[in-house]
Design goal:
Layout: H1 3-11, E1 19-20, H2 23-29, E2 43-45, H3 50-63, E3 67-70, E4 87-90, E5 106-109, H4 115-124, E6 127-128, H5 141-147, H6 154-157, E7 164-171, E8 176-179, H7 192-196, E9 204-212, E10 214-215, E11 220-227, H8 233-243, E12 246-253, H9 254-263, E13 276-283, H10 287-302, E14 308-311, H11 315-326, H12 328-332, E15 338-343, H13 349-363, E16 368-374, E17 379-385, H14 392-412, H15 437-450
Parallel strand pairs: 2-4, 3-4
Antiparallel strand pairs: 1-2, 5-9, 6-10, 7-8, 7-9, 11-13, 11-14, 12-13, 12-16, 15-17, 16-17
Helix pairs in contact: 8-10, 13-14
Enzyme class: oxidoreductase
Pfam families: FAD-oxidase_C, FAD_binding_4
Subunit structure: Homodimer.
Length: 464
């Protein structure tokens, strides 16, 4: 069968007009937010039902066509990039939510539901979907599940995995599996649901997810604290954790703050300039809690760990303080940053960061380096910015040459080369720094069980 005959057949599996092959669509749907890889899919297909997804997967098996899942395309690891004539399966039209189950605190979502849509739905019922990050306005639940998305509230609520009560998936063989059926307690052998979370679409596609919701947080209050050096951030974390139940503990450097300030649409936290800043959040449920936070702030100042600070007094101030952290990624994106998303256990952060900082200062004396991240979870985002006058290929080649030293350090600390962005194409050649050869072989064997013809997002996580 010719290539065009394959595509003719694909048209018959979905609603009219739901296969696109024009150049603009191939470019737009063939990639995510990463900039290293040129998109080159052969078609984009938009299923509307589970049956249509099954038909596409069966068709792909028959003709040995590779499929790439596509959600909000906000990924940072190129897991949703099609570089090699694949058919992209977009879940844009599977974007409905069911009724909120207020007894079980769950809601059924199709994979194309936008994260913010779920957050707002929960809010309408005085509930809360706590997985949150800057791209929540465009990222989709299916993609969040595929990458086990983390974000800014992990310290309190954990990653996406914690919020998936049940999954319906179409495996690489085209079978429909109902996994866990939303149960809290279920001790009936392997929990296959967990395998599909973070699998980046390499085992099958999520066609429905029951997401858990939590009670709405009360009177969220943020503090931004300026520290004299990086070493002071962890004692600040320990001091506040000892007194309060934190819902977030983030950090960013002066360079990151300067980039956000240059936009001109966010008020500065305070006038004192500091090399590093911590942003923490808690529920100020009583006056006593707020007083405890202020007393801890004063203690940190007395210890010399904090130079200046501010505490939000209104929802507007809370939102403005969060913008200081949440706008960083978008603000630096035009500088084509080379992104590292590394993690170690929290106790090891200070020693680890010192070593990484030494490597980076030595290796990139001429590049701007921007630090930020979810330091309360041990997750650091190290962004190297491309100088305006250097071309993209030369810049990435230079950054890649430093990976070995960075990842060897990650390995030495038993850390992760990808804390929350996923492996995709970007980190795939470095997987061995975080996973043993035996583990990788077991992962490949699992893929062969669910996807014997290797059609599900091939080349992602590991090479084929
Ligand atoms: C963030 O923490 O802002 C996101 O992971 C995105 C990024 O790392 O740029
Ligand atoms: Zn992050």
């Amino acid at each position: 069968m010719t290539h065009s005959a394959f595509l003719e057949e694909l048209h018959t599996l979905v609603d009219p007009g739901k296969v696109l092959t024009d150049a603009d669509s191939l470019e737009a749907y063939g990639k995510d937010w990463t900039k290293q890889f040129a998109p080159a899919p052969s078609a984009i297909v938009f299923p509307k039902t589970t049956e249509q997804v099954q038909a596409i997967v069966r068709w792909a098996n028959t003709h040995k066509v590779a499929l790439v899942p596509s959600g909000g395309r906000t990924g940072l690891s190129a897991a949703a990039v099609a570089t090699n004539g694949e058919v992209v399966v977009s879940f844009d039209y599977m974007n409905k939510t069911g009724a909120v189950n207020t007894v079980d605190r769950t809601v059924v979502c199709q994979p194309g539901v936008i994260t913010k849509q779920l957050q707002n739905l929960a809010k309408d019922h005085d509930l809360y979907y706590p997985v949150d990050f800057a791209s929540s306005g465009s990222s989709q639940i299916g993609g969040n599940i595929g990458t086990n998305a983390g974000g800014i509230k992990v310290i309190r609520y954990g990653m996406t995995r914690n919020w998936v009560a049940g999954l319906k998936v179409v495996t690489g063989k085209g079978d429909l599996l109902e996994l866990n059926k939303d149960l809290i307690k279920n001790a009936t052998g392997y929990d296959l649901r967990q395998l599909f979370i973070g699998a980046e679409g390499t085992l099958g596609f999520v066609v429905e997810a029951t997401m858990r919701l939590d009670r709405a947080p009360k009177n969220l209050t943020a503090m931004v604290l300026g520290t004299p050096d990086f070493d002071s951030i962890m004692p600040v974390l320990h001091a506040f954790r000892g007194k309060l139940d934190l819902t977030a503990f983030e950090f960013f450097s002066d360079k990151a703050l300067a980039k956000v300030m240059a936009r001109g649409d966010v008020p500065p936290p305070f006038t004192t300039e500091c090399p590093f800043y911590a942003l923490l959040e808690f529920e100020a449920t009583t006056e006593q809690v707020s007083n405890e936070a202020l007393a801890t702030f004063e203690h940190c100042v007395e210890q010399g760990w904090v130079i200046d600070g501010v505490m939000s007094q209104s929802e507007q101030q809370l939102a403005n303080l969060w913008k200081l952290r949440e706008y960083i990624s978008e603000t630096i994106s035009h500088r084509t940053p080379y992104k590292n998303d590394i993690s170690v256990t929290v106790a090891q952060v200070p020693a680890f960061l010192k070593e990484i900082d030494a490597i980076v200062s030595e290796s990139y004396p001429d590049f701007e380096v921007v630090w930020y991240g979810h330091i309360g979870d041990g997750n650091l985002h190290l962004n190297i910015l491309k100088p305006e006058d250097l071309d993209k290929e030369a810049f990435f080649a230079k950054c890649v040459s430093v990976n070995k030293a960075v990842f060897e350090t990650v390995q030495k600390y038993n850390g992760s080369i990808s804390a929350e962005h996923g492996v995709g194409l970007v980190k795939r050649d470095y997987l061995n720094y975080s996973r043993s050869e035996a583990e990788i072989q077991y992962m490949k064997a699992l893929k062969a069980v669910f996807d014997p013809n290797g059609i599900m997002n091939p080349g992602k996580i590991f090479a084929v």
